[in-house]
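To whoever is on call:

I kicked off a structure prediction for a single chain this morning and the downstream step that reads the tokens threw a length-mismatch warning. I double-checked the sequence; it's 348 residues and nothing unusual in it as far as I can see. Pasting both halves so you can look.
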Amino acid sequence: MRRLLYLGVALCLAGCDPQAAVVGPSATAHPTPATAAAPGASAPANAAEEAVLGPAGMTLRQEIGAVIMVGFKGPLTPAILADWRQHQFGGLIVVPTNQNATVPAAIRQLIQSVRGVMAHPVLTGTNQEGGTVCFEETRVSCLAGARQVGSQGSAAVQSEMTSMSQGLKRLGFDINFAPVADVWDGVHPLLSERSYGQNPQTVAQDVAAAIAGIHAAGIYAVAKRLSAQPPQTGDWIPFQAAIASHVEFVMMASSSQLYPLRTELGYQGVIISDDLQMGALSAEFPPPGAAVRFLANGGDMVIVSHDIAVADATYDAIHMAVLNGRYPRTQLDASVQKLLNLGLRYMP
């Protein structure tokens, strides 16, 4: 019944209130080389592409919004809400550095307000790994991080992840961006506390336990690869465990990692980017270009965590990439279908 309800909501997109359902180009984004019209692109051809409906009757512009997860700095304003209504972004990410709200009630209201202008369900997520990665303003207990709890065994990993994820669920979140599935190489400090260890098999067991804990709380899990370094022997073993545990999302720090995930591990679920506004990524590839590159290489959803204007420019770049053929519409359709296939299992 819930899945039928979801499909009904999705099918109403084309017939919903025009302000809510029709997604137009950004009114504030400035033209850039990434969004400029492609040489030789004809208006009739573009118009024909715009008219084609994808999964569940979604228009091209609705599909483009659906594959972008967005965050913004400061409190929710009427202008940001209007932008959200226009672009119909598929995901909302709320993180403490954006200072959107300082108390749980305000966080809950923020999520409800964004959902109120959506023509379809929106995925809402945050990071609550434990240890050094928690969202204090949620008042969700920040329990031990991966390195510490991992030494206590998989049962402790599952219990702690369930407890933290239940707190997120109560606030309206339906994704916990956890667990980190990297095997620590003993060198990089980023992973020293956030990885479950240096033994691939042990990490795999703990990753599976963490995913089970998140699912027990009734929200989606994300197996994250934070390292952009080429994978070493054993690095994919925890991701194999995550796939076997039916993880809904896999996060990749680099689009070059998508190919082995798809071909060698056979993962057919949703691959989501790390935050495209992170300095390590944006210096070489600014978010709009990085988004197109990630999606064209086989990713399904991109994250722009801090600036609504950058999200708008990313939307415009993806739109143009579809029109000029760099990012095939068939790939966009397939990614949107994966997101639709998540159903309402862990969503309000």
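Update from on-call: the warning came from a stale cache, not from the record. Cleared it. Sanity check on the structure: The longest helix spans residues 154-171.
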